[in-house]
Amino acid sequence: MMDYRAEAQALRERLVAWRRDFHRHPEVGYEVHRTAGIIADVLRGLGLEVQTGVGQTGVVGILEGAADGDTVLWRSDMDALPIQEENDTDYVSSYAGKMHACGHDGHMAIALGAATLLSQQREHIKGRVKFVFQPAEEMGAGGALAMIRDGVLDDPEPDVSFGLHLWNTLPLGQVGISSGAIMAGSSFFNLRVRGLAGHAAMPHTTIDPVACAGQLISALHTIVGRKMDAMAGAVVLSVTSVETSSHAYNAIPAYVTIGGTFRSFNAYTSEMLEQHIRSVAVSVCESVGCEVDIHIRHPNIPVVNDAGVVRRLRRAFAQIVGADHIVDERTMASEDIAYILEDVPGAYFFLGTANPAKGLTYAHHHPRYDFDEDALATGVALACRAIGDYVFD
Fold first, then answer.
1. Residues 148-155: what's their mean pLDDT?
2. Considering the entire predicted model, what is its pTM?
3. Catalytic member of 137, 306, 335, 372
């Protein structure tokens, strides 16, 4: 295998150019037409077999080796977020209300960099590499499942699957990788509290859903601490939105809608949380004469890494960043690569991108999120090393 650290560093200018172009032109959900077109063109230029329109707007590039062997899947997400960027850089988003606030622009640059280097070694590859560029990862939009339904895990079937997430909670260059559940399953709830509207000066003639919603929010936030077994594992519940049917200051609205999310690392805990949410919502609302409509959905299952694959990657990654730069990492965030890993054993890992000296410490999904681009070359080297461990002797 080539010296991936040196070769990836030599690609740095191209990696940064790709990343900044994607950052300037963020596209959300399945509407990643420009992004997908650029990726398809690059992959074709590298001599890969390219499929487009997979899972609506996904792209698959297959790098075929010179001999038979394993099929390795490397997945990258493509979509941005509906966030107005507040950074002041020369690559700031040019689209109002849209921003790459989670590092997907970097994920794409890394995947293209890995495809570039590995395509130069195709005569030594035994098997093939399947580069998967997925739309609609954010907000539980279902991009991974859409691509699976369109056959991304078929013809050829992958033997192992990988992906990475640039991670601003780890310092630049540090790698976080763990066995078992490393990202939580995510669920969303929507509770519509229905009362009786009326004049704010005569609240006794109404059934106030705002007052009820206030009690309900407090009650929901006690579920994790008082209803769940502290030994059952990591759990989080957050109310994230409140909206009323009226915005008049002198009117008590007919209803209030409460939205939020809950996360856990296993299906049993998630089921228990849902039961508690339903029970608490009904009891609080009934106690003040309101009614409640409850809608809960579960867009993502936990991301679970294969223990054998993780052990293998730790040894491989130590040759890139050093064993002292590899740490255990888990998060209550979620990722729909979980559905790929459910079918194809593999590993998802985190690459640290935070650099306080440059002010690059804002959290993912923050309007001022950005990351240190020095991580891009490291990401390419890690990707090539992970893939190469399966397709090279």
1. 97
2. 0.93
3. 137
